[in-house]
Design goal:
Number of strands: 11
Strand content: 5-15%
CATH architecture of the largest domain: Alpha-Beta Complex
Radius of gyration: 21 Å
Order of helices and strands: EHEHEHEEHEEHEEHHEEHHHH
Oligomer: single chain
CATH class of the largest domain: Alpha Beta
Number of domains: 2
């Protein structure tokens, strides 16, 4: 599947940076199914080492009325960012969307993600990332933890309340569900490879700085994003978020105080735990703080169960502390050991 020369200019180019995982097949199939009569191209950027994956993608491409192309690229550093940039450069449409290789888009997602661009002032659009039902328990709990009140404003990314597009801050962007005007993306220099897994955040900040275009969040342009399927991968994911937050602050991005809360929580708990054996007030404060924290975790879990009506989701009480600890530790590590490469190494570049 070499890069194609489209006969007619598509209305939407969809870029999928990938490591060639089997989930890619499901993602491409959902995009093809959702295409309708829209002129759309799908650009898969990455090497497909698994022959079963490449054969299925080729089969879908042969059967699809959409234009499906493969750019077999891999990069030793900043792989995800570099793949997004390569896909954007190859895109034929004026609107370029980016999705991960482990999502399933809504039946009308292509049309919905394009709707806000009818306003020429809009340069960037994002939509909700929902937790699918057909996944493992750990994966579901990982997603529901990030969608809980314990995750702060991040939980807003999982909401489908209402249907009308709304203007939001740059930090409300969802990297696995976003679309840019290609011209705007070129103006800001694309995605910075040094910021994985936060290349979308620094790009959104640069794109929405005055006098640039606003970010529109369209609740109707939703997709399912399959969460991490192990506790280790979940902690690694959140660790990357925490490290990236410090990198963003260092780069001059607006500092949102709430995002530094996990670092303060980790430092405070460590200080009180160290002083508790020697100073009784430290032990009292530690016990009181632990009790308040536990109450907050239990409340967040209860609210999530009320929302999902699944008793099993109460088990996020065990993942919420892991989320806060991973995020907070990463923030401190990034302060003292900055700019370590956190990207997933593609098999062909390892």
């Amino acid at each position: 599947m070499p890069p194609h020369e489209p006969c007619a200019k598509p209305a939407l180019s969809v870029v999928i940076p990938t490591l060639g995982r089997p989930t890619l097949v499901r993602t491409v199939a959902s995009l093809i199914s959702a295409r309708g009569d829209l002129a759309m191209e799908i650009l898969i950027v990455g090497r497909l080492a698994d022959s079963r994956v490449s054969d299925e993608i080729r089969r879908l491409a042969d059967l699809s009325p959409a234009l499906v192309s493969l750019l077999p690229l891999a990069f030793p550093r900043g792989d995800s960012s570099e793949k997004k940039n390569a896909g954007a450069r190859a895109a034929a449409a004026e609107i370029v969307a980016f999705v991960d290789d482990d999502v399933v888009v809504a039946p009308d997602w292509p049309r919905r993600i394009l709707e806000p661009f009818a306003d020429p002032a809009v340069g960037l659009v994002s939509g909700p990332s929902l937790v699918p039902d057909d996944t493992t328990l750990i994966a579901r709990l990982s997603g529901q933890t990030l969608a809980s009140r314990a995750a702060g404003y991040v939980a807003e990314r999982y909401a489908t309340t209402g249907d009308a597009p709304v203007t939001v801050k740059w930090s409300r962007l969802i990297g696995c569900n976003m679309a840019y005007r290609k011209k705007l993306l070129e103006e800001i220099g694309g995605f910075d490879p040094a910021f994985w897994p936060g290349e979308e955040m620094i790009a959104a900040f640069r794109a929405t700085r005055p006098p640039r275009h606003p970010l529109v969040f369209h609740h109707g342009a939703w997709l399912y994003h399959y969460p991490r399927a192990s506790l280790w991968r979940f902690c690694k994911q959140v660790y990357g978020y925490g490290a990236t937050r410090i990198r963003l602050v260092r780069a001059g991005v607006e500092c949102e105080p709430a995002t530094l809360g996990p670092a303060a929580l980790v430092l405070g708990a460590a200080a009180l735990a160290a002083g508790a054996p020697f100073y009784r007030p430290c032990a009292w404060l530690l016990a009181a703080a632990a009790a308040l924290y536990a109450l907050g975790v239990l409340t967040a879990a209860a609210l999530k169960v009320r929302e999902t009506r699944r008793a099993s989701d109460f088990a996020i009480v065990f993942l919420i502390p892991l989320m806060h600890a991973s995020y907070g530790i990463a923030e401190w590590v990034e302060v003292f050991r900055p700019n370590r490469d956190l990207s997933e190494i593609p098999p062909a570049a390892a």
